[in-house]
Design a protein that fits this description.
The complex is a heterodimer of chains A (316) and B (247).
Chain A (H helix, E strand, L loop, with lengths): L2 E8 L7 H9 L2 E9 L1 H5 L7 E8 L7 H8 L8 E5 L2 H14 L3 E5 L1 E4 L3 E8 L4 E8 L4 E5 L16 E4 L9 E4 L14 E5 L9 H8 L5 E5 L1 H5 L20 E5 L5 H4 L7 E6 L12 E4 L2 H16 L3
Parallel strand pairs in A: 1-2, 1-4, 2-3, 3-10, 4-9, 5-9, 12-13, 12-14, 14-15, 15-16
Antiparallel strand pairs in A: 6-7, 7-8
Helix pairs in contact in A: 3-4, 5-8
Chain B lengths: L1 E5 L2 E3 L6 E2 L6 E2 L5 E3 L1 H15 L5 E8 L3 H10 L4 E6 L6 H14 L4 E5 L10 H9 L3 E5 L1 E5 L2 E8 L2 E8 L2 E5 L11 H7 L5 E4 L12 E7 L7 E2 L3 H12 L1
Parallel strand pairs in B: 1-6, 1-8, 6-7, 7-14, 8-13, 9-13
Antiparallel strand pairs in B: 2-5, 3-4, 10-11, 11-12
Classes of the chains: A alpha/beta (316), B alpha/beta (247).
């Protein structure tokens, strides 16, 4: 009997990696999607091969909490042998909660999966990426797994179209009053950026990073992220933190400015295609992890970069 | 108002452990076992709430093998009022830890479970969420500020792609971020005083009756990163590279 897999995809999951989540799910069995977001988030997945059904939960109805998602998803657990999501915030907060309720196993941050007759083996990083653990999950119980989506190949698309069925919210009896602190509506999300400018403590006195980000947009969508040190110095808020306690990202280019290369930060950028480091300290650990390095002072290099970018691209 | 704080004992995360020949045991020569830094923050926050008169008792709980009594002794020195040790033979799987902590949350009638949001060894980021699912309490994850007002908990925490102020009624589970506060380390006086408090010992078999699924780590391997850095001479070269790979 083929296993039933419920894959939860959220509107904050990187668009480029959504088909990869589906391909990972297909290794385990027949895939049903549960999409949280706009209707278009669900519609963009309709022609991916190997999907049996698509459920769509509108994210715009109200300011929902993990409790509301939890209540809404409970009825869908009955048929699922596996419940999967990415490692982004929705899955990170929801899947272990579901696993706790049902007293069933959860494995997070999975980078590879192999399925055998009676068990499934999941590989996941530990100790900030210095060690990879293999976890054995029995097939006889429902398992909850969060995936580093960038580590899986994309599923194919065909010319079919799986119908989307709309799902109603089942609100939780636990009310959480939520007041967002800043609006993120117009920011490029870290998950979807082609280029991420990473700011370390070395950028503390660099005032034109935003201008650099703006100019890099001419090459690809660009967002900026920070290290813990910069958050600790209250220069930036926690929602752009990359690393062990923050987000994991998978851009084409990670441009590390004034970042020393501590593993607490670097474990969040291992899925970047290319890491380019700019640092004035030639001994900085980042140069052992970067693909390209430029040794020099950011006070000189950042303005030069901005100037060059505006000349070579003009006003596109 | 009782607060329960689960504490984990881990290999010093800065020690960069390697793997033994058996392909599973961790080896970190000379490295200490320490309290998970996230749990130190949770414990400090709990003690601060008690000192402010907002909580009556702080109970630390550890679920694990021999050695855990040292970590719980540290928790008492950090001014937890009581320490519970659920003794196991080996390092137990997450589900067993969570079931044991939930057992004491109910039997001790605690109002708030204050947890580190993750453990610095496996970074699983699961325990507070699993506790909230099992106990059917609301959860707030990655809290960077925390207060209790009229049996309501107010916290700043992750929400979608940003941050939000979140208010919830007790009982509740909170997973704290390192930014919440700096851990306060005990004075010599506190260390000596804590030695007089007995650690309450239980066997794990007494804490839950349900058969839990067997999940096990079957292998560990060290990752070797051998990246060769190509050094660039100029900003022009840098821009060429960005153009080549950026879009």
């Amino acid at each position: 009997m083929t296993a039933c897999v419920l894959l939860i995809i959220d509107e904050n999951d990187a668009v480029k990696n959504r088909a990869s989540l589906v391909s990972a799910a297909q290794r385990l069995g027949r895939v049903s999607l549960f999409v949280i977001g706009q209707r278009t988030d669900a519609e963009l997945l309709q022609n991916i091969d190997g999907i049996e059904s698509i459920f769509w939960l509108a994210s715009t109805d109200h300011r929902f909490s993990t409790e509301d998602l939890f209540s809404t998803l409970i009825p869908y657990m009955a048929d699922a042998d596996y419940v999967l999501s990415s490692t982004e915030i929705v899955g990170r907060n929801l899947l272990p909660k579901l696993a706790g309720k049902f007293q069933q196993p959860v494995v997070t941050n999975v980078i590879n999966m192999t399925v055998n007759d009676d068990h499934c083996l999941c590989k996941r990083p530990a100790f900030m990426g210095s060690i990879v653990e293999t976890v054995r999950l029995p097939k006889s119980v429902r398992c909850f797994i969060t995936l580093q989506s960038a580590r899986f190949p994309a599923a194919n698309r065909g010319d079919h179209s799986v119908p989307v069925s709309s799902v109603d919210w089942l609100l939780s009896s636990h009310t959480i009053q939520i007041t967002p602190i800043d609006s993120i509506e117009h920011k490029v999300l870290l998950a979807d950026a082609d280029i991420i400018v990473g700011c370390g403590l070395g950028t503390k006195n660099i005032t034109n990073v935003d201008e650099l980000v703006h100019n890099l947009h001419k090459i690809g969508t660009t967002a900026s992220g920070v290290t813990r040190a910069l958050v600790d110095h209250q220069q930036r808020s926690l929602d752009t933190l990359i690393g062990q306690t923050g987000k994991s990202v998978s851009p084409n280019i990670y441009l590390a400015l004034g970042i020393s290369g501590a593993s607490q930060h670097m474990c969040g950028v291992v899925n970047a295609q290319k890491i380019i480091a700019i640092n004035k300290d030639p001994e900085a650990a980042i140069f052992q992890l970067a693909d390209y390095g430029l040794i020099g002072d950011l006070h000189d290099i950042v303005p030069k970069l901005i100037r060059r970018l505006s000349i070579t691209h003009g006003n596109l | 108002m009782k607060i329960l704080v689960p504490v984990a004992r881990i290999v010093d995360p800065d020690a960069k452990p390697t793997v033994d020949q058996d392909g599973i045991s961790l080896r970190a020569p000379g490295a200490m076992s320490v309290m998970n830094p996230f749990d130190e923050v949770a414990l400090t926050a709990a003690v601060t709430l008690r000192q402010a008169g907002k909580a009556s008792e702080v109970i630390a709980i550890g679920v694990g093998p021999e050695g855990y009594q040292d970590t719980l002794r540290s928790a008492l020195a950090m001014q937890a009022d009581r320490a519970i040790w659920v003794k196991t033979g080996n390092i137990p799987p997450l589900n067993e830890i969570v079931a044991s902590v939930a057992f004491f949350a109910l039997s001790e009638k605690t109002d708030l479970l204050l947890c580190g949001k993750q453990s610095a060894d496996d970074d699983a980021c699961c325990v507070p969420q699993m506790l909230s699912g099992l106990l059917d309490y609301p959860q707030i994850i990655s809290a960077t500020s925390l207060d209790l007002v009229d049996h309501q908990l107010i916290a700043t925490a992750d929400y979608r792609q940003g941050l939000a102020t979140q208010t919830v009624s007790l009982p509740a589970v909170v997973g704290v971020d390192l930014l919440l506060c700096s851990p306060r380390f005990p004075s010599l006086g506190q260390i000596l005083k804590s030695k007089k408090i007995p650690i309450e010992e239980y066997a794990i078999a007494d804490c839950f009756t349900m058969m839990l699924p067997a999940v096990s780590i079957v292998n560990r391997e060290v990752v070797n990163e051998n990246t060769v850095c190509h050094y660039l001479d100029s900003v022009d070269q840098l821009i060429d590279i960005i153009k080549q790979y950026g879009s």
